[in-house]
Amino acid sequence: MIRFLMTLTEKVLARASGKTHVQPGDNVWVNVDTLMTHDVCGPGTIGVFKREFGKDAKVWDRQKVVIIPDHYIFTADSMSNRNVDILRDFVREQGLPYFYDVIDDPNGHWSFDAGKGQLARQYGSRYTGVCHTTLPWKGHTRPGEILFGTDSHTCMAGAFNQFATGIGNTDAGFILGTGKLLIKVPETMRFFLEGALPAGVMAKDVILHVIGEIGFDGATYKAMQWEGPGVYTMSMDDRMTIANMAIEAGGKNGIFPCDQKTLDYVRERVEENGTKQDFEPVDLDRDQSFSYDKVFDLSKLEPTVACHPDPGNRKLAKEMGNISLDRAYIGSCTGGKTSDFLAFAEVVRGKTVKIDTFGVPATTKVVRELKETLWSGQSVWQILESAGVRLTENASCAACLGGPVDTFGRLNKPMKCISATNRNFPGRMGNKESEVFLASPYTVAASALTGKITDPREFIS
Ligand code: SF4
Question: Which domain, by its residues, includes 247?
């Protein structure tokens, strides 16, 4: 019997399409395990679904649809508020169990009260925040499965040994009706990590380094597979940061092997949330075919910055002290996790930021954890506020993608901003003349303290 050796992505796609073997370039129909959509693309997806399958059509599997309003939420823009209402109407009509609504009333209407300001909580008990950080938290990511989402950073779930990628509204509408999608099997690029990260260097620096190496289109329609002993030293949050930015190199998906950390993380969350508990990881074959294969020594990496105008424009933080900044921003699916805020707080603790600094937790769980985590009797939330960070309890995408003009932290005029987010093409965070520098939470924190792009190792013992 011939034993076919496949990469992780090929294995997931082969299983999901009922085949023993697939290879790059094959077009296969895959059965979808989870479809996620949000407030920006959800209404369009629902429109496609109703147009193509009929106004009384039912989704293919109610347990496999996850709807997470997170993008344009805390804004007085009535069209944005209306989008959340469209999602709620659809969820009620279809009887969908996984909807993380902004408000508690299933028959209500969402409207943001600008009079209460941007900082204080304005959401109900089920609201969660950014979709990609919500999915693992709420037990919707499982090894060996297929996740499609109407958002390019859906690739973040590759951290969990899953094939996860972003799709458009038309494909998502088709999945709602059929549970299937035709997909071309991508070639796989392997990034083999050795060693461990030195002090002051984070997972964000790893992915910025790699994108700088291959370019912002260097992985176009490729799977980015992460392997090597360095991978196993990383937390799940670290892996999520790296997988999240596969799309910033044009990647179809990013994917990690499954280890005990993956299993512990996933099992805890599927049990806690009562979501599907059975899954089958895909493991590494000894011989696989890659279109690119390179070893990276983590111990050699330094704090890295992606300069305006794209995520591949790489420089070292230590070379950039001549660039004065107007703003610092920590938040998003990539950089707004609890571990990101803890790293940021480690640097600014007991000091005061020199420039406008905005903090937007990715999820409501992050808000809770920052308030509950005490350092010498003070919560991390208080430590950040005392340092001068403008922190909002309204977890969401916020200024990561600009949004309506009243969005918290949005760049409403030309300015230079250092940000823990994932994308810096012109206009991404608002004003088109602004320059956004992507960096790790450590580097963003150090730069907030000095007002210039700063190597955080100056502040880390
Ligand atoms: S936080 Fe930013 S990158 Fe993440 S889903 Fe929202 S807009 Fe996209």
Answer: 188-255+276-300
